[in-house]
Amino acid sequence: MSDMSQSAALDRRERVRNGLSRRHRGEAIFRGIGIAAIAIALALVGTLFWQVLSKGLPAFTQATLHLDVTFDEDVITAGPAPLRSDYASAAQYEAAFLDWRRALAGINWAALIEQAVRAEMPELDAEASDIRRLVDNNAGLTLRQMYQDDPALLNQTLNVALLGSADTDNWLKGTIDRSLPDARQQLSAVTRAIADRFAADGVISMDFAWHIFTNTDSRTAPASAGLAGAFVGSLYMMLVVVVLAVPIGVASAIYLEEFAPKNRFTDLIEVNINNLAAVPSIVFGLLGAAVFINYFRLPISAPIVGGLVLTLMTLPTIIIATRSSLRQVSPSLRQAALGLGASRTQMVFHHVLPLTLPGILTATIIGVAQALGETAPLLLIGMNAFVANIPGTPLDQSSALPVQIYLWQGNENRNFFEARTSAAILVLLGLMITLNAIAIFLRTRLERNK
Amino acid sequence: MSATETQASPVHQTVRTPDPNAHPARLKADAVSVFYGEKQALFDVSIDLPEKSVSAFIGPSGCGKSTFLRCINRMNDTIEGARVAGKITLDDHNLYDQSLDVVELRARIGMVFQKPNPFPKSIFENVAYGPKIHGLARSKADLEEIVITSLQKAGLFEEVKDRLHQPGTGLSGGQQQRLCIARAIAVGPEVILMDEPCSALDPIATAIIEELIDELRSNYTIIIVTHSMQQAARVSQKTAFFHLGKLIEEGPTEEIFTNPREKRTQDYITGRIG
Question: Where would you say this protein principally sits, based on its record (chain A) (predicted)?
């Protein structure tokens, strides 16, 4: 009897041992698959970043000419700026000042640049147009603004940094094939020669392109095109999203989770909220166009409409995340509050909500980051229009960062805008990484305080 | 009484002699039944609970003793689908009357739960919360006094007086449970319900709480649900035995433990059912 039970025990142990190697193998395989999956994901992310960084980083420096410009009175024929003391009334002065500005606008500022270039290269034999293509179309405007701000510059010589044209930038960075025949080059042989000579002499240097952050989009002067308009437009939209989506989302989540009776109606609402989170974003764009623009007559291409549409998209994210963090608060805490005679509202606001704050905050920032990168619905409410202003209010026409990326991506000057597009992507990614970092920082901070 | 003294006291004590001065009952239950949806969890429970003494509810798991306890401060209201029939009266006022405000009721009938559940706030805030929401303190000094008195009554003050502003969740389990008792006392209730207050505590912490309950009974009506028959014997003057949702037998604790009338009570206290 005892022999039998002993042999049975041995047999059992044998069986366990036989199974062991199979189990260990299974575990090793699964671990291998997991590591492979992570490696693939990392490789993809790495490729993405490598692509964007290698293309986008060069765009943050741009060919800039440092020329000794003389504000020649033979060219600047507008006369001296009117003085306030010469006029009897403020209105008269205003009128004279406007006349003067108009005269300034009519001056051939490019001629000053031409003079400066020729002074730098006395042996130069070039047409005026060859020199003009060297610098950005806005370079003349830069000089005009300088003179208007300080008329005392007349006949003075100043070293001025002027942005090179997009074509000059391409040529010097090599983003255009240098071996192409003249007929297929953007710049004439003379202009290319000047550019090469200036680059060698240090007259043209690759300076950090601050204007990417301070200028708006530009079609006539692509080299000076910047993200400021789109950035501010996005900022206004996010403002609208935060102001609307957070209170509405958190309030509905609290009501549904803590106060609403559980019946078929609230079940229906719950299902619909979950469905809303899965609705393709372009549908929200259509809805925005139909409701906010056609029905409520809100302005087209305005951040307020974009913000409203993105609010609709962000709401389900915030509601679902807030509800799940409300559900995580332990029932014993709720009982403690109720048992002391706290009302339901007191229980929620004094005890439950403070504990769910990190969750709500994370949900909000993730929702806002999502909304920040959304493009499709914005195209349908006209935010893909070319806007060369920084919007002053959310009601002004504006672009948005992801839409700006889309617009630049489609620009016909591919050689120049390919890098520009990647640079805009970098700015957007930077903004999102910052938002996520803030979310993580605040969450760990709040959770530590618990 | 200081903590060291109470810790030194033996964990097991002999059955307490019943309180010689029988106290009148202000809290009375009359034919209370509880339904969770279709399922009936409690059948026609009628019992008088004497004031300023400890009544213990004993019985095996799922016998309805906790359900009945939760009827007394209407915590069952918070459970979806729970329905209570019958009458519970405090000073002849029906607690289930439409006109009664449940918030006010819970200020008069406090509760201590099975697992210590202090708020994730400071010790001071934990105790001060009840008086604050009910507007019991007229000034800051007033509130401070309430907090200190309550902590003293709960036998916790000496241990925490130097760290009143540290989180209550940082205390040991037994201290947390005494903090919860102090929190309940701070509102100035007439009745304190305790739902297995020692089941998550070690024997020493249990002994301290039992001593505390014995002290508190001079001022409060205490009703305690317990799994431990020894505990019921040690702390209570009246015991009620529940089985399968019915109140089988109730009476002075000594009688229930030495001379039960019902066979089921006898079987339970001798360990034959449970």
Answer: membrane
What is the arithmetic mean of pLDDT over A244-250?
94
The pTM score is 0.80
Q: Find, in chain B, the residue whose alpha carbon is nearest to that of A342.
A: B103
Q: Sorting pLDDT into bands at 50, 70 and 90, what band is A449?
A: low
Residue A7 confidence (pLDDT): 86
Q: Are A290 and A308 in contact (CB under 8 A)?
A: no
Residue B13 binned pLDDT confidence (cut-offs 50, 70, 90): very low
Distance from CA of A261 to the nearest CA of B (A): 9
Tell me what pLDDT residue B5 has.
Answer: 41
* Domain spans of chain A, in order of start: 60-209, 228-448
Residue B255's alpha-carbon distances to A282, A345, B156, B171, B258, in angstroms, are 77, 46, 34, 38, 5
Candidates A262, A338, A341; nearest CB to B187? A341
Q: CATH: 1.10.3720.10, 3.40.50.2300, 3.40.630.30, 1.20.1530.20. Which one for A228-448?
A: 1.10.3720.10
Burial class for A121, CB neighbours closer than 10 Å (0-12, 13-18, 19+): middle
Domain count of chain B? Answer: 1
Cβ-based neighbour number of residue A381 at 10 Å: 25
The complex scores an ipTM of 0.85
Cross-chain CB nearest to B106 (options A330, A341, A355): A341
- Residues sharing a CB contact under 8 Å with residue A6, sequence separation 6 or more, in sequence order: none
Q: Are A171 and A192 in contact (CB under 8 A)?
A: yes
CB contact under 8 A, B73 and A343: no
Q: Do A335 and B113 touch (CB under 8 A)?
A: yes
Give residue-wise pLDDT tens across range A319-332.
999 999 999 998 89
List, for residues B135-178, the tens digit of each pLDDT value. 988 899 999 999 999 999 888 999 999 999 999 999 999 999 99
Nearest to B120 among A343, A346, A450 (CB): A450
Could you tell me the residue range of the domain that residue B9 belongs to?
3-13+20-269
Strands across the sheet with A61-70, in order? A157-163, A61-70, A204-208
Average pLDDT along chain A: 90
